[in-house]
Amino acid sequence: MPVPEQHFDCLLITRPQPEASALATSLADLELPAVVQPAFTFAAVELAAAKKAHLQRAITTGDQTGQLPLLVFTSTRAVEFALPQLSRDLLRAGKLAAIGPATAAALQAAGLGSVLQPEEGYTSEDLLASLSGPGERPLQAFIFAAQGGRKALLDGLQQSGAKVHELFVYERQSAGVQAESIDRLKRSRRILSVWTSANAMQQLASSLPAVAWRKVCAGEWLVVSPRLAEKATAFGAARVHECNGPGNAELEACVRKLCSDS
Known about the structure:
The protein is an alpha/beta fold. It is built from twelve helices and eleven strands. It is elongated.
């Protein structure tokens, strides 16, 4: 039976694996054809011995003065790729912070129990707001991340007076674009796309054929923050919806609502 024109006829999921496939599976009962097309895969980057030694000195000195550096983990992948390279004792001696609840949970699951996180929200801006009170501003901070992201966090910490060091513990690699994904997007009339990263927007804008990208832009975009909503509009999204969280549970609820309202 043809899909009515007012309904979505394609769901584009751009978040990384394994979350992308898990989201598609949870929405299978909608019978909405899903294109699972992550923009990136990820690989570990080994920290240089000098950077590890610098971190060790900063924590040891801070412990002696009572002014511990802030160790900020920007994502669950930062946790995944940083922890095998650092001793638990070293990390337990530092002051840990996480961008949001999923990253905090990953640290806690690894036995690192005391983790600062935003009281509300899950963005760099939310974490910075939680550090704005008296006594909360760090004198020194180490950001565990991939290169090319979290500029707002870096700038915000520097503007607060902190000396900031970026420790790149993983890198993004293009996931490539599947031929079947391109074909499905080209044939679709109304696409609902799911976005959790501005870097993913940039990557797919440059790697998808122009005709497929125009179809995506002409559809509706579901994003996970006001900053991504602005990015989506800049990329030419016809209509943008903002979800109330970055996890699969929140995204699933938002997709279901949009499908029922369409």
